[in-house]
Every structure is written in structure tokens, then in C-alpha cells.
Amino acid sequence: MLRAKLRGAFLLLTALGFSPIAHGRSLTAPIASYEISCRLDPDRKTVTGSQVLTWTNRTTRPAATLQFHLYLNAFRNTLSTFWREHRGRPPSRAVQESWGSIELTRLTLSADGTDLLPALRFIAPDDGNPYDRTVAEVDLPRAVAPGETISVNADFVSKLPRVSTRTGYKGDFFLVAQWFPKIGVLEESGWNCHQFHFDSEFFADFGDYDVTIEAPARYKGRIGATGVRVSERETSDGRVFYRFRQESVHDFAWTADPDFRLLHDIFREPGIGDVDILLFLQPEHLAQAERHFKAIKAGLEGFGRVLGPYPYPTLTVVDPPWGAGGAGGMEYPTFVVVGTSLIAPASIQSPEEVTIHEFGHQYFYGLLASNEFEEPWLDEGFVTYMTDRVVKAAYGDAHSYLTVFGVRMALGIDVRLPLDDNRRYFRHAIDDPLGIPSWKYRGPETYAALVYSKTGLALATIERLVGTPNMDRALRLYADRWRFRHPKTGDFIAALSEVTGKDVKWLFDRTFFSSGTIDYGVLEASSVPAKPPRGLFEKDGKLSAGPPAPLARAKGYDTLVTVVRNGDVALPVDILLRFEGGRTFRSSWDGEARWKRFRVTGGPRLLEALVDPDEKILLDADRTNNGRRPEGDPRAASRWTARAVFWLQNLFDFATVAW
Amino acid sequence: MSGPSGISCFARGLRLSLSKPYLAVSLWLMQLLLAAALILPVSNSLHASLDRSPLADRMIGVPDYGWWETLRRTQPELLGTFGEVVEGLLSPVGIEPDAILGLRGIGATAFSLALLAIFLHAFALGGVFGTLRETSSSLVTFGREGMRRLPAFLAFTLAAFAGAAASYRWIYVETGLALQDRVEELATEGQALAVTAVRLAALLIALAAIKLLADSVRAIWVARPDLPPVSRFLMGIGGALARPRRLLGVLAGYALITTALYVLWIVLDPPAGGEARFALVPLILTQQVFVFVRLLVKVGYYAGISEALTRTPSPEYSYVAPEGPPAPSGKVETIDDVTLQRPSGGV
What we know:
The structure holds two protein chains of two kinds.
Chain A: H1 2-15, E1 32-41, E2 46-56, E3 63-69, H2 81-86, E4 101-109, E5 121-122, E6 135-144, E7 149-159, E8 168-170, E9 173-176, E10 182-183, E11 185-187, E12 190-192, E13 207-216, E14 223-225, E15 228-234, E16 239-249, E17 254-256, E18 261-269, E19 273-281, H3 289-307, E20 314-318, E21 330-332, E22 335-337, H4 352-360, H5 362-367, H6 380-395, E23 398-404, E24 407-415, H7 444-466, H8 468-482, H9 489-500, H10 505-511, E25 520-529, E26 536-539, E27 542-545, H11 549-552, E28 557-565, E29 573-579, E30 584-589, E31 595-603, E32 606-611, E33 627-628, H12 635-654
Parallel strand pairs in A: 1-13, 19-20, 20-22
Antiparallel strand pairs in A: 1-2, 2-7, 3-6, 3-10, 4-7, 5-6, 8-9, 9-17, 11-12, 13-16, 14-17, 15-16, 18-19, 21-22, 23-24, 25-28, 26-27, 28-31, 29-30, 29-32, 32-33
Chain B: H1 6-19, H2 21-36, H3 39-50, H4 55-59, H5 65-74, H6 76-79, H7 82-89, H8 97-101, H9 105-133, H10 139-148, H11 150-185, H12 189-223, H13 229-242, H14 244-268, H15 280-310
Helix pairs in contact in B: 1-14, 1-15, 2-9, 2-15, 9-10, 9-11, 9-12, 9-15, 11-12, 12-13, 12-15, 14-15
């Protein structure tokens, strides 16, 4: 009863805009903190804002300049690097010609009001594109000393594009992301401030955000954002003001849509977190609310158990409307944009998979703030791997599906093995090595296949090679050690090496940083009745025809098995020979040579030879050749032939149905 | 206009089809022979990939997602782009002809065989409609009638095929492309699905109209051999336009039963479960019985169309003169040689 009352009080407080479980204190020393006041103009599709940036130089070198991301300028015209990279993309990823921009109207040092705007210049550190306006640099009148903190005031006008990629509007819906002047990351080697790319995401320092949003009153109760809503105010002239605060995050995004339906739930699990879940759902998806909540909780629990507690008091989940899917599948601190369909059979695990995936970025991106420009696999790939584990644990095998006239229909085919739906990697396996910056992949398919799928498959393979307990310990060590920092791939390798007590860098060299393929197979497997030897044999010091008595009676079977490495890359692999009578022979092969042969003379009859019998190497490009039997069994092929003929008959009939 | 309803015509057609089962047998044989052209490449590939694979045990009952993915990737010439074309055909926008022409592998062969199926379809329909008109008929009648009407029926079939292809292109694909951006701007996905449904419905109506017109022409062509070809053709068109409800009733009955058969097949899914449910031979027999039953229904549809157009005399081609005063009957007048007048005159 008391529990129910507490829950009721909690819901009431959250509905009123207060979060009783807000922490309100920094979890890490802030580097770049922002106070922003902004006003949404839904008619002009603009956000006009003023911000105070408080930035601390945490390096050991003075900073004579500042660099800012002005991401919305990627949508300024077709000469931007983003737009140039978009050319030739498939229609499914087409970007509409709806222009966006961000204009700085004031840039001053807070301390003395020095106007920095005249010294502002645009740079293009990635490709030298003189027309790209997504990175700006400004000279400071005096260098910022190591450890020194400065404040910079900026006024800006952000014009949002029609949503097609990550940010923008559709009708009255707004997903306002990458919308304010954001300072780059100063490293010991200098500024790390990349341009806005088509395939790349982001990188920023942690800080505290305090953001006030003004919007027309019709958006009342329909605005969600990073962090905790600390106040709501409505004025007599038909405006609403919302204030959000969040400490120890590295970005801020918000959304507004008068059609949103806001739903609440609470996740409370000792050791993982107390989280107020706010779900901004489209009205036509209300029936899927419980599925969203269940997925979010599965994500909180699944990721939290392995990687440690989720440290923030809120999680805002946004369901973009029809036609704004480009805003979906994106992550921002404490704020994820998911996406679903009107008709979503439960067996295809959508929206569950995307919800858990985007939540997973609260760890790999949010807390472990790796550089998404330079090492995108550290967030997307790690999340792909972990999502598969969490989804499988919570929901079991997924079914593949077919989209029929826009409606997704489940097929009765299980996606059985871990990450089987990431097999698109194999089509692009040799396009590029994984370890290159995100904008340097051959194309978007290669980027997706390698960054998401190859990393996921590689991590799952490594998990199977080192064991799940070791993998979990390594992930936890990595997550604890690098929480609120900027880890690199080497840091995870170091964590895994530490846990296993072995240097595992070679494993990553062959999987992450190689474009070679892995493919082991059984080339031949034969088992024939043994025959007595023939020819001339020594008997009483003389050569005579026919073998001596001990050799004359052959018994058992002679077995020959040849295992081959067809791929370029070698990994250790197990080999299993199964014989009649339940006897087996298991061998570990380092997999370095091109082939290995097993010969058994006079033994039991071989039933089958298997390479990688436990299906550890998920990076194996062709698992259909991983086993071979001496005797063929035509049953499966015959049944599938019968099925094929049957459907061909129907196809030919269908070919004449309308004429 | 009074007369039997579409459903009763379809029911009569089904009875006719059951009374002449060799018609369905002929169609079944044709389709089996067409499919047989692909048995060897399909079978050989499957046996080569599966027979000695330990996956074969699992694959007897259920497909293995990874195996199929690998097969498609490692043997691109086998299945070609067949899957992509099917996905394109079923997409909200549709598929351009280029994609179909770009088919490879078994998909391309299947497409060529489908064109051959259209040719054979023209022959078979000549045989079916011709045989249905005969009170005493046999397989020989089917062949004779099919060959006799092949040129005309091939022309009708190709014209209808062109009409259907044009309908798909201009009603479904082009509207899909034209509306693509606007659909994105709709408020809800429900509205977008409704737009697709309307386009699909328009396409189906056009295809139904083409089919009924073509089948009406075929039925009249066979029923009225006494008329010149142009008259028969126009009378066929007129027949369809004069009895749209009845013909639609026949088509609806055919579509419903066929859909029900497919739904039943998919729900029961006889191949699933592997040998625990059906051994190979019973499975093949079950499949072929299904195909045969479906073809019986198909012949029933054609017989129903023939019934709907020719059972009740209609003004278009069954002209009956109005009643009036009886015409005077003729009589014979005998003329003998005596009474014959001689020509007059002399020298």
C-alpha cells in the first residue's frame, strides 16, 4: 500500500515536471558547460538562442584559439562536405533539399566583452573544403593557460532543415539536435574538431547543461530534452518556458511536438539505477507503449549488469512521427530517438531492438565518450554487440521479415545465431579495414557493414574465444575505468589483456584492423573400410607376395579429413571428428597453415568432421563449408527442391493470372 | 438484365471443371513441365551444398537463416537478384522494368519460363474454352481447340499482358513515384498506408477489368464462330460491359477460393516440421494435389465466365425476330410441255 502511494506521489511529481530522484551535482569535473536560453519559432523553423559557455583548458598546453562546431551549416548548401558525401547515396538515405544553417550573431568573452566575431574564420580540418562552414576557429586575445577557465557569450540563430538526417522538423514536430555552437575537444595534440560528415557522429567534452526553452503554448507538456525538467512556466501571451538541467553530459538535444503523448514509468533496480522514463509517443503508436517500456527496462538492466549503473535520473525516449524517420535511431545524453511502425509484429523485435540499441549508446557514447569521428566502432559496434546479447536474453530469437506494400510481415525463419542479421558485413568484408575514420570508408554500406556489423561479429567472436566471464569482466573494467572520459580502442584491448592475463592485441589486429576475411572449411572427409596391404613383404629374410599374418587381416575404417583455411586471416579454431559408437576426436589448430590433415587407420567409421564445431568464429564468411560427412544425406536438399518446384509452379500460374 | 448470378455461374463452372478433370490435368502438366526445367539446377546446387553438410539435419525441417544468406552471397549467379525483384514488386513504390530485365541466374531463367508460360496460357485457354463448348470431349479436343485458336488467343493474351504491365507501370509505379514526397508529409503512417492501399486497389481494379475483358472476348470468340472476327471481338467487349456484376461475381468467387487455398497452405505449412510430419513422397504428393485443386478452381473460373456470357441468350449475339403475320407459304406449279408457248415468227 505504502509502495503504491509512493509510486503515485512519484508519478504526480514527475507529471508536474519535477524529478524527485534528480542528482543535481556533477559526476565528473566539467570541461565545457553551457547555459542556454532559446526560443522556438515553429513557423519560421528557427531556434534563436543565447548561450554562456564555460570552458576549462584541461591540457598541459595553453590554448591560443577556440574551435567550434557549427553543425547545422552542413545543411547550408550543396557545397558542404556533408552534402558532397551524400551524393550517390541510395534513395533510402536521400536527403531532402531543405536548407538549414546556424548563424553566430554575437561572440564575446564574458570577462571583458571582447568581440571575437571579427576574428572568426571557417576551417575544414578533414577535407580542406573551402565551402564547408561546420567548423569555425577564433583567435583569442590571450591564450587560455592550462587549468584556466574562461566564459564565452554567444548569440545564434539556428534554422532547422526538414528532417532527413538526425535533426530538423516535420510539420510541427521538431528534433533539435546539433543546434548550438559547440566547442571542440582540446587534446594535447591540439583541437579535435571535425567537420559534419554524412556517416559520422560526434565528439565533445563533458560539462553541465542548463537550458531554457521557450515555445508556443500548444507545446505545453509536449517538450522533452536531455536531463531533468526543473521548471515549467506558462505566460499570459501564450508562451511556455521549460528549463532542463543535466550535469556531466556532453551534448544537449530536445524535441517538441503538439501531437506527442507523454507516458511515464520508473525503473528501479539496486546497483543499476533509479530512472524516470519519459516516453514521448506518437498517438498512432500508443498500443506499443508497453513494448517500449519493456525494451527500455531490458536495456537498463542488460547494459547495467555488465557495464555498471546508469548514473542519470531520467531517460527520455522519443518516437518521431511518420515521415521523420531520419531523426530516429539517434542517441543523445539521457535522450534517445527510436522509431517504430504502425504494424509491428512482436516476433520481428522492432521497436524493441532499436530502442535497446539507442539506449545502449548511453554507455558507449554517453558515458564512454569515445571519438565517433575517428573510432566509430567503439560506440556503434560495441552497442551492436551488446544489444544482440540483451535482446536475445530478453526476447529470444528474432524472426526475419518481409515488407509487403509497406507492412512488415514476419517470416518463419529464425535468426538463430548471435548477430546473424549482421551478416551484411560479409558482402563488404574486403572493402576496407575497420580501423579508419568514419568519413573515409568506401561508401555508406561499407561503413555500416564494418562499423556496426563487423565490430559486433568480431566482439562476439572474441567473447567466444576468451569466454563470456572474461569478456564481461573486461567490459566492466573498461567501463569503470573510462566512465566520463574519452577511451580509445587500445584502452579496451588493454582491459581485455589485463583480464585474460595475455596480450590480445594480435586478436584485434586480425579482426578490427584487417580487411582480410576469415573462412575455415572441411575440404574432404572420407572413411572407407580398411584393406590389407598389398605388394611384396619381407618374410624369413626374403621378399614374398602378401603381407605377414598380423597385417593380413584389416579391420575398421581408414579415415581422411582435410581442413583448410580459405580466408586471409588466421584464428585458432577447434576441429571435431565424430565417429560411430559415440567416439570423438577434438583438436585445436592454430589455423596458421593453409591446411591440416587428419588420418585415422583402422578406426571406427567417421560420421562427420567439423571445423569450429561450437560456432565460435562468427566472422567465418562461409559456415556452410564448416562440416562434411563421408556419406551424403540427400533428404534436406530433396525437400527444398520439392519446395522450390512447388513455388515455381505457382509462380508460373501467377504469371498468367491477370491476362 | 435478369439471369444467373455470378456466384451461381461460378458454381456451375466448378461443376463443369470437375466433370472434365483432364482440363486441369493439362494445365497442371504444363506448369509442372515448365518448373521441371529448373529442377536440375536447383536440385544440383542444393545437393552440392547440403548433402554432406552437418546443417542438413537442421534444414530438413526449418530453413537456416545463415545458410540462405551464405548461399545468396557465395553463389550470386544461382539466385541472382530474384529476391530483390520480389521485394521491389511488393514495395510501396514498386519496381522499374530495368530491375526485372536485370535478373540473373535462376531468377532470369524463371522469368523466361514465365514468358513461355504466357504463350502456353494462350494455347491452354483456347483448349479450355473450346472443350467447354463440346458436349462430348476429350484431351484430343483440348489440343485441337487450343491449336485452332492459338493465333487469336495469343493476340488477346499479349494485348492483355501489355495492358496489365502498363497498368502496373502507370497506375502503381508512377503514382508511387509521384506521391513519394507527399506521402512522407502525411501526418501519420496510417494515412500513408491508406494511400498505398488506394493505389493497390486501383491497380487491382484495372487488372480485374483487363482480365474480364480478355476472358469475355475469348468466351465469345469460341461461342460465336459464325460471326466475323471483328464482330466477335466487339461482342466479347460488349458482353463484359453488359454483365459486369455477373462477371465480377465469377472473378470474386475464383479469387476468394484461391486466396483461401493459399492461406490454408501457408497456415498448415505441410513442409514444416520435416519428416515428422510428411516424408518426401507424401509431401510432393500433397503439393501436387494442392496445385491440381487450384487448377480445378481455375478451370472452374473459365467455365463460369463462359456460363455467364453464353448460358442466357442476350441481345448482342442471340437475335430473335419479333412475331408478326405468318408469311404466305409457297406452292409448286407444274408446267407441262404443251402449255409452253412457242416463240412466234418465221421466215
